[in-house]
Amino acid sequence: MTATFDADAARRDFPLLGKTFRDKPLVYLDNASTSQKPDVVIDAIANFYRETNSNVHRGVYALAEEAEAAYDQARKTVASHLHASPEEIIFVRGTTEALNLVSQSYGLSNLKEGDVILVTEMEHHANIVPWQLVAEQTGATVKAAPIDDLGQLDRNALGTLLNEGTKILSLCQVSNALGTINPVAEIVAEAKEHGVVTGGGGAQSVPHGSIDVKALGCDFFAFSGHKAFGPMGIGALYGAEDKLAHMPPYQGGGDMIDKVTIEQTTFAAPPQRFEAGTPNVAGAIGLGIALDYFNSLDHEAVAAHEQALLEQATAGLSALPGLIIHGQAPDKSAVLSFTVKDVHPHDLATFLDADGIAIRADHHCCQPLMTRIGQTATARASFAFYNLSEEVDRLVKAVSRTIDCLR
């Protein structure tokens, strides 16, 4: 039996959640955009700059060795969270940079005219635009696997596309706009039967549980720290060792080299080959601490709590007149995207802000998906383990009042 999760206790670890806005206690429901940060993460970043600040991979003095040890430990923590080896973890600014790295390093080196890069209709722009750029450079083509009216991938269409010259498949594990959870392990196994290289976006899955990239079977996997209770400007890319070993550098500069002459440069082994320049040491340390914090929680209890919030919000909002929920896949994460007839999502979000409720209202960097569902924007409430049932009640009541006021 899954233990009950104590969200009230967890909230005490997050200083910002105690703030008030518009003279109302904050209800923060934009976790799919960025999560809040616990004190231990904030303190770890501040402590690095107070006590350990030094560059890494350069100094032989004690302070530099302390900084490097902390940086290396952060890489080990990320690797452990993903069930990978530290040599397969590259620190980047976030999911977006990770996908640009894969497209420009692996993609540019391996794609040619006529090849197909396959994404899905539910992808964030970060998993579309980098592939369009490399397609223009190589003569490859970007195609999208369609979704059905529930927001699930059309597996038959996906299977057909995998057999039509597809060389790379890159898809999200969880849709940031619909909450749909994709069966990545099944899809990757199918893709491998066709010799397709696979990448997964974990920006929306890592904040909700541990990830085993070996079980998923993908060649690449990326996530952002700021969505996983860590700092902004840091994230990680997992790359399978056999892929990274043959990929050229993404950027050139200090610390990613073996030997430099005016005539030629040879490069360090991965992951250092892909981390040119001074890294975000404090960010990496903060990310490691964030994952340690998250892993101290009961993940099964967290998942049950978030699912209960999603079900409560779905039931409450579905009962309101003219409200349509977009994305009703049976397997879904704690994201609720909706529109109200004759009420613009921006107006709805503005009225909710007056009640101290923070939700997202736009295309969620998913314009092709918005086209598919026939909307220019949706309102989106996204939940984390520190959200409360009472906050869902406030959301539903505030949306109901807004509908009454604007219609």
Describe the structure in your own words.
The protein has 2 domains: 7-30 and 298-406, Aspartate Aminotransferase, domain 1; 43-295, 3-Layer(aba) Sandwich (Aspartate Aminotransferase, domain 2), CATH 3.40.640.10. The strands form 5 sheets. A 7-stranded mixed beta sheet has the order 4-10-9-8-7-5-6, with helices on both faces. The protein has a 4-stranded antiparallel beta sheet with strand order 13-14-17-16, with helices on one face. It has 14 helices and 17 strands. With 407 residues, the protein is an alpha/beta fold. The chain starts with 6 loop residues before the first helix and ends with a helix. The longest helix has 21 residues, at 62-82.
The structural domain count equals 2
Tell me the fraction of residues in β-strands, as a range: 15-25%
**What's the overall average pLDDT, rounded?**
97
Let me know the largest β-sheet: 7 strands, mixed
End-to-end Cα distance: 45 Å
Taking all Cα atoms into account, the compactness measure Rg is: 22 Å
The helical percent reads: 25-40%
The number of strands is 17
Provide the CATH superfamily of the largest domain: Type I PLP-dependent aspartate aminotransferase-like (Major domain)
- The geometry reads as globular
- Unreliable segments of 5+ consecutive residues: none
CATH architecture assignment of the largest domain:
3-Layer(aba) Sandwich
**Under the CATH scheme, which class of the largest domain?**
Alpha Beta
Structural class: alpha/beta
Strand order of the largest sheet: 4-10-9-8-7-5-6
Q: Remind me, CATH topology of the largest domain?
A: Aspartate Aminotransferase, domain 2
Tally the helices: what do you get?
14
